[in-house]
TrEMBL record:
InterPro entries in alphabetical order: DUF7964
Species in which this protein is naturally found: Halogranum gelatinilyticum
Protein name: DUF7964 domain-containing protein
Boundaries of every DUF7964 domain copy: 3-90
Pfam families in UniProt: DUF7964 (PF25912)
Domain of life: Archaea
């Protein structure tokens, strides 16, 4: 079972995001802070790492697909905060540009 398989078919609740914040391998990145249309407050993007092979991932909840998707991934040596932010911004602009967002500042699972 992969991380994507274990995520629910919805954004995470704030409590679920807080639970992940204690993890060494997964951290919440973006929390929607205001309700708009059918979107509820919650965690919509995650940062994850895998040890075999050593990779860094940005995951996002795609409302069109109704599931979590890999937004981008890098070998650990290729990952940078700038690449992470660029991937995150592009995904959010494509899917949630009209909603108020709060970036948690989590990087590399911290």
């Amino acid at each position: 079972m992969t991380l994507l398989d274990s995520l629910p078919p919805r954004p995470l609740t704030l409590d679920e995001g807080e639970d992940l914040a204690d993890s060494d391998t997964v951290a919440p990145l973006t929390v929607l802070t205001a309700d708009a249309d059918s979107y509820q407050q919650g965690v919509y993007t995650l940062f994850a790492t895998a040890s075999d092979p050593k990779r860094a991932f940005v995951l996002g909840f795609d409302p069109d697909e109704g599931s979590w998707v890999v937004v981008d991934s890098w070998h650990e040596d290729e990952w940078t905060p700038r690449k992470q932010e660029a991937a995150l911004e592009a995904f959010l602009d494509d899917h949630y540009e009209d909603l108020e967002q709060e970036h948690t500042g989590a990087q590399r699972g911290a």
